[in-house]
User: Which sequence fits this backbone?
């Protein structure tokens, strides 16, 4: 039986560059988005490592405040909401739907596993038109620990009714793949532009430049 596939959502399935016009409007520079999201991840990792939980939306707002202070921009509540609300209105990367369809047609169970809250994740997948591909939408908020801590991956396995090694995590983030592998899952890395794999982590058995290549790699790997 093939493993259940659990997909990271932000950047793996959904295109964060859709936020660029919002950052352009507020900061006068769309590239600030590429400063903000890594800052949010850094805040998330610090919170997780030190055992102080904040949900992903709260972390995103804090990171936005840090970036605006660094840039010397006076961020109004309206500006903040304008940017953060865009997280619910992200389009999928162009090849994502076909990649999901190939895996579904090959008999794989598909779930989403995200650091976003349940409410945001469900809104994202509905807006993007991808919700129908997933039998479950799973949020790390449920266990009050964010990926790459082991608890979200174990929660996904339990929710799907399989052993942790019966789950394959698919992500465009090396840190997420590392977390999944070290929690006992299989994994696949989507090497989107600018995404490179951590040389200190044993690579997964499937890697590809987009979700179509990764889907084909998963199908081939699970058939062995």
Assistant:
């Amino acid at each position: 039986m093939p493993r259940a596939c659990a997909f990271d959502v932000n950047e793996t399935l959904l295109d964060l560059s859709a936020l660029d016009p919002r950052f352009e409007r507020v900061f006068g520079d769309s590239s600030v988005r590429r400063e903000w999201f890594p800052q949010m991840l850094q805040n998330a990792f610090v919170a997780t490592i030190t055992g102080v939980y904040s949900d992903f939306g709260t972390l995103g707002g804090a990171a936005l405040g840090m970036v605006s202070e660094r840039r010397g921009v006076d961020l109004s509540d309206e500006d903040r909401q304008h940017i953060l609300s865009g997280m619910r209105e992200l389009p999928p990367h162009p090849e994502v739907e076909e990649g999901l369809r190939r895996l579904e047609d090959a008999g794989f169970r598909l779930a989403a596993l995200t650091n976003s809250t349940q409410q945001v994740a469900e809104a994202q997948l509905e807006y993007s038109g991808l919700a129908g591909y997933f039998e479950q939408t799973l949020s790390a908020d449920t266990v009050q620990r964010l990926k790459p801590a082991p608890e979200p991956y174990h929660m996904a396995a339990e929710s799907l009714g399989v052993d942790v090694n019966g789950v394959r995590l698919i992500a465009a983030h090396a840190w997420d793949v590392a977390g999944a592998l070290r929690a006992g899952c299989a994994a696949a890395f989507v090497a989107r532009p600018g995404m490179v794999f951590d040389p200190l982590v044993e690579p997964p058995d499937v890697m590809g430049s987009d979700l179509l290549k990764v889907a084909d790699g998963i199908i081939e790997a699970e058939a062995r």
In short: The two ends are 11 Å apart (CA to CA). The beta strands are 4-7, 110-114, 136-139, 167-171, 186-190, 206-208.
